[in-house]
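Field: COMPLEX_INPUT
Field: COMPONENT_COUNT = two
Field: RESIDUE_TOTAL = 1435
Field: MODE = joint
Values follow.
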Amino acid sequence: MIQSASLLESWTQENNQLASGCKDGQNEPNREHNLFRQRRWSSDFHKLLRKIQGIPPHLDRAQLELSVVYNTCVCFTAQSQFDEAELLLTQTAQRLLQIAGDDPGTSDPSVLWRTALKSVTGTALHRRVLSLLCLQWGVWLAKSRLTAVQDFQEEMSLLEAQSGAVWNDCRAETKEKISNIPILVLDPRRLVDLLKICTAIVQGAERLTEGWSVLSALQAASASPAPRALIAYTHLLSGSCLAHMNRPQMALQCYRKALETDPRCVCALYQSALIYSRLENSQAEIQALRILHSMLLLPSTTEPAMAAGRLLSPSLFLCSQSLSSLLSVPSALSVLHSLALKCVIHSRVSEGVECYLDLLAALQSEDQHGVHAVVSTLPKLPRLYLEAGAALLMARRPADCMALCDEVIGSTLDLLPEKVLLEDPVARRVAGSGEVTEEAENGLVRLLWTAAAYLLQGHCYSQLKDWKQAVTHYTRCINLLVKVHYKDTGFSLQIPCADKDPEQGVDLCVLQRLKGLSLAGRGISFAQIDRLREALRDLQLSRQAHPEGVSARRWYGEVLWRLDRKQEAAACWEQTWSNPIPSLSEALPVYAQELQSGPLLDSAELHQKLQELGPT
Amino acid sequence: MMEGRCAAESWAEFGLLGKSGTPLVKCGTGTDVFICTGGEEVYVFTAQEKTLRAVLQMPAAVRDVVVSHDEQLLFVACWSGVYCVNVQLLVPSFSHDAGSGPTELKISTECLVAVADRASSLLVVGSVLLTLCRTDASWSLTLYQIQRTSQSDPCDLLASFSLPLVSPKVQSDAESRCVLVCVYPGNLMPASSPPHPLRSHYPLQPLLFRRLFGAEAALSKSPVVLCGLPDGRLSFLPLRIPGSRLRILHSLEQSVVFVGASAVMETDAGCAGCLIALGKQGRAVLIRAGRAGLEGGGGTRFTLGCVPGPVECACMDQSRVYYSTGSDLLMVDLWDGSSGTAGRQGDKEDEASRSNPAAFLTPISLNVSGVVALHQPTYSSAGEVQLLSLSVRGRLQSIRLPVRTQEDSLSKRPSSQVGRSVGDILSAIGDICERASVLKTIIRSKNQILKQLNQVMNISFLLSNRSESDLKPVRCRGSVRWSRLLQRDSLNLTCVLENLSPFILERGWTLSVTVLPLSCPLEAGGEASSVNYSFPFSGLGPEESVEVSLPVATAGDASFPVTVTCSLLFSLWRFLGQEEATAPLDLQSACFSLPLNTLTVDWLDALRLSDPPAPARSSSSPADLLQGFISSRQLRCRGGGQASRPEEYSARVRVSSELLRDALGLAPGSPRVSLLEWLLSEGCGGVKMERKGIKTDGSSSVICGSAPDNATVKLTAEEVNVEEKTKPLVTVEVQVKSSSVAAVCGLHHAVMRRIQTLLQKAGSSRVVPTADLRLALQQAEEQRGQVWEASSVGVSSGQTPPLLLRVYQQLRDGPLLIL
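Field: COMPLEX_OUTPUT
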């Protein structure tokens, strides 16, 4: 047996050398070099393991073998090589059973582990097997196989219960004879703690809709010792769970707690903003978005700094689909855009203008921070320009608005098609529903951009009371819009509406709106320079194109009044009392809505006129 | 034509070019030029003083070099990643001593700023470093933020964009070089750009820019990165647009070598009105903006042209492209002669002169051979064009082109050619008609070829989609036979290729059989060398088979077991024949191989049986004895004559009879005879020995024969009772005896191999007795000790071989019991 002991010893020494090298090397800050080093460690451990497993399994060497398997698997897991780790673990379980002489006759890992655990109960190997089971748990978690984790809930609790006592023994033993005990690269107790909270988080994210049971589990997890970031996640999930249960105020409390625990938990802030938006508390929402944006601009907020100095980072285990969708936060630019849009819609125009200008400056700048998100929720650039233009117009800065519109027109004008032929949307849906409209920047969209730019310029001139120029620009807009033709003659123009056809529906709706607005704008301008017949024609057409347009209708009445068709005018005005000018909504681009930038008719005056008419 | 010749002046020699990297000449800071010769060095050469200033020794072969816009940092792409070197390090701190020679710098992994496996091209745009790498399934363009503060820190990864490979065909890595350039709208170059124009950065006419990349890119004034890939695709990525991704602009259908931009008209004012891409085989595409409103929205015109290839490298100035075919340096004037007037004349004239591709790409030879890398041309004050080039022999040359005068360009079109007769045109029509009919027949034959290629695809799919263990629908069977020819015995293998698939193997297929002996006698150098046989065949229908025969070994040759690997080769050359394969196919893509099964011929297969000895005599016949004696004697004499008497070696294997009965399904009566029969008859490597039947007389279970090295061997099988712990166990013991060690080893190995398959068949869920195992392990440990001892002690005294032999004997004699 002397020979055997020497082999055992030399292998143990090799393991210990590797493990201590591994422990020393963890604190190196350079992450690129870390990558290479981790690769080397895992291949070294794996080589040693293959040597050990080259001979049949035996009880004498089992302790060493299990330790090396543990180390190798930790290294594999650290590099996200979960398949390799799992294969190794299964093989080890089988070898364990060979020692015991059991044959479960299956390769199902859960059965294997159960039998293996049973076979070593009471022996010195028990804690080693438990620590390997721990790694298996981690692999299941990383692969989001929650049912397997669930199945082992019992064993896991055993693990937790025993961890203290057993591993304390281990510590004592290590102190006794330091050279003969194989060293582990990571304390299993720390692994258990980490896995416990990660499991709670992932399970919570998967079963958010289940209500109180999940909530209590998350609350329990939040009390456990763990890194701040993970505790913050438990609070965040509790909040999301409460939000599902229709308790927005409690959810907000949880989000606040998450932020208090870990100030870098920006997703909590984002979720709060979403809740405020649901509660229609626009001021709070704007505030939340503003803070979120400034936090996103800080360096290193997006990168969770949890992994520093550790072999296994929690993010390895937190890769479930539903969790990552909960934790994802839009890029700083997207946040800035929604902030700007909210400000404009909720009548904080000057702030909105500032945000839009910041956004455009960020997009133009050389600094590439945050532009390269994989999926961008930002609208297309020309649309951003036009929204900013609309905001500037509302803020009564027509010159700036015109400059922006000039840029849009300059970049799109020579790309416009001679005419756009639209097919019947019903037929389109049947024929080409599979083909995604890959070329997003197609002719219709470009045409709408240019037309909207002309429309805004028209609004600018009418704000400046330069009616002739306004008429010119409205006319350009109309000339562009009439280039759109429908192929099917039987197709009625009433259909377009934002919710009917998601692809083209919005475009068609915008098209109709722009038509209505530009005709109304031209009509009003004509009315201002006393060309009442043209004004009447345009306003009539505008009402046909966009029946909901309120200012067009009022002005239609006004022009009728001036033409001395007072009864008709009165009837027209009567209709408009019932529906005031609608406030801005998010469903459509801002520039395709009524901006109240042009000359307004005082409704009191109209009332007076009506009363004058009444007696006569 | 060109007046005068160009002058090539050699500046420096760098030795022959390396194969692993990419030869490069790139402009650096000031008048510095960075040169790579395909190895691991980057040379810094000052053009002004014509001296080598510094040498950078990189850790791996260099693929690309690029300088940051502020000319402070040099990025070098190697196989393992991108390294960053501060340019200040390359400048000697005090005034350069004439005798001190170049600064030598060894770059270590500490300078690694980005880990990018197989990075092949680099580009710096503003403060962003771009790398283009080929991964297994895609091309990936990765963006890094250059660290301004300290250059040794790794760069932050900004984003990564990928484009899937068109086909996962294997391209050699040296070939997969790509082109990365950056274009800007208008003359809106980055603010931090140096005064002189950057290589790979081109300002583009705003109209062309808008038409190519859309309104969004134009509005954001975003620089756009163009990638020319080896598969011929030209893709683009606008850098500053959120959510943008790599999209295809055009496909050249041949490896893109060069992408550049040129000014078409004088009105362009410094911006290029035309993008140019050159392919490896000389295909060129010119991309220009068409007239507004002509074709509706997207008025970009792609004009295809062709120059005599192959294009090794290229560079261009305002209107001329210079490229090297390896044997000559050529110059193409893109807007020849009329470049000054094209803008002013009507568009009609312009269209006409451009629409004929052959008209504009006629190269002029500059008579410089062997150029593999070119540097952007520079101009002297007199209008002379100067090119820096690196030749295939590693010579840095400065090539001066003579001044082109105005008369040259005007004299190009003789007035006599202007009036073309109608007859010419008619004959041209006739030519075209003729060509059309030729093309029709070509199309027909191409269709035929496509049909046959479809069969090839089907077969490749069938064969490549299975793992080694499955039975493939096309496979080989083998049988061996000893034959005597010219007094020499040789072992012949007959391979039968069976086609069990529903497809026909038509022309172009070759059966390739590789015979690889496991080992070779020491005299032959100890290195086993394989022999390859190929058998072209044509037309193997379903359920048909082809039989080929090949020698495996000769008598006296003891290099068994022999692995016979069968594979099917398909060669596009053979398939297309001589006349079709005129298009330059590269060798690697034109030929592929599909592995079939692998056969093994081992000692048992190669055993020649002799008559069994009479049952009365326990030992072999006197003649055999004599023969054995002599041969072993010879062996011994050769070995140095250490032992005096012929030694008999033996090896034993024990198998439990129960297992044999279970596995072989034998009658319980005489397992030993049937075991021997099974050993000799059943080919477990897929090879069958053709024997006339094994003659074992009834009860006796002894087989005699001669091994391929002519040594006599005896195989016996007998039943032995073994006391395993408490219960008695009946086992069959197979013993191999011979005077030749090689024969014993080989046969033992062959027997073990067969029994292993037997065990696999029987299923392995058997309990292994621990006590026995411990004993065996202990023995093994002991023997390991002996081997250790032998290797440590015996080195000096020359005792190692006998000691090792003894250990081996012990290992083989202690029969391993197989349950």
